[in-house]
């Protein structure tokens, strides 16, 4: 059997450090999850990469405008397997976002598909732009607020 191997001494050092401090390759502290965030119209969209995470292991909480996302990925090795390489992160992943007062935390929606968790956070009604009427000696006109 021929196996192509590429050696990266820093990756090996990271793996050994995780095993030493976290035990069994599990990081000692929650790992951060990659994220994209953007505004689209009257909502913010936040996407987290969570490949291989079961949907029921994802936990979302909002408390005092702090959104916490936690997820867990456990090893998928059958019992008694002789693991040759284990580079994919396992364990608990966690991320906190501080949401501004102008966001409607009561109407956040979440969708998980193909390893991507997508959150949609609407802008609060009171924070949306609105028109203000101007009165004066001539006829009223509208300006943008």
Automatic annotation (TrEMBL):
It comes from the Bacteria. Transmembrane segments: none annotated. Pfam families: HSP20. Signal peptide: none annotated. SUPFAM superfamilies: HSP20-like chaperones. Residues 26-137 form the SHSP domain. InterPro entries: A-crystallin/Hsp20_dom, HSP20-like_chaperone, Small_HSP. PANTHER family: HEAT-SHOCK PROTEIN 20 FAMILY MEMBER. Belongs to the small heat shock protein (HSP20) family. This is HSP20 family protein. It comes from Amycolatopsis thermophila. The lineage of its organism: Bacteria, Bacillati, Actinomycetota, Actinomycetes, Pseudonocardiales.
């Amino acid at each position: 059997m021929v196996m192509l191997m590429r050696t990266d001494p820093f990756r090996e050092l990271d793996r050994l450090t995780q095993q030493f401090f976290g035990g069994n390759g599990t990081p000692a502290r929650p790992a951060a999850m990659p994220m994209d965030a953007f505004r689209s119209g009257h909502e913010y969209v936040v996407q987290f990469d969570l490949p291989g995470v079961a949907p029921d292991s994802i936990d979302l909480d909002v408390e005092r405008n702090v959104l916490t996302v936690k997820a867990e990925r456990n090893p998928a090795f059958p019992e008694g397997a002789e693991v040759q390489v284990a580079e994919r992160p396992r364990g608990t992943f966690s991320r906190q976002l501080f949401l501004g007062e102008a966001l409607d935390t009561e109407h956040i929606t979440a969708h998980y598909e193909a390893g991507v968790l997508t959150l949609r956070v609407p802008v609060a009604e009171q924070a949306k732009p609105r028109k203000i009427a101007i009165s004066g000696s001539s006829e009223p006109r509208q300006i943008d607020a």
